[in-house]
């Protein structure tokens, strides 16, 4: 305990961010960049979630066509696609250098598989809602966090594809949460929640003030005398 008390800072100091970092992640002049990133990531989530919900593709390449595997929900065999995904992941959980770690394979086998229908709804609706939040720029930081969480689970299950790229872009959107939804609903939502979009444009320093020196007075019976 004495060591912890010794290491504990005795004063609170503010370390300002690097100017380039501040410009990229908090300056509204860079909002256009995060709009492009946001639209790309939202497209990935919307198309993936819509395919799972409806069984139809809305990608540019195959718009309106039946998606591989069909819909995940409301088909009478909800959870079938989750079963296939999990079984494929479990097949890569063995060996000296498994693609799926043992602890995550146990989670898939004992938690996800017995509740495949529930996870089918969570994944499908989760992907679609993340896409909606990002494309509208509504609570962009929160939507990006949930997107990164989904991507991390897919990678832990041994699925790479575009997941590493989406994780990187999602983390950047989280870092730029103040302005990543500036061209979107966050422009009005964040002020309503009393959350500032931007840090101050300059550091305010408290200048020491000079106190007026008072002339000492001597108090007598007849009142103060200079």
From TrEMBL:
The keyword Transmembrane helix applies. Residues 206-218 have a biased composition (Polar residues). Residues 206-226 are annotated as: Disordered. It comes from Reticulibacter mediterranei. The lineage of its organism: Bacteria, Bacillati, Chloroflexota, Ktedonobacteria, Ktedonobacterales. Keywords: Membrane, Transmembrane, Transmembrane helix. The chain crosses the membrane at residues 128-152, 164-185. This is DoxX family protein.
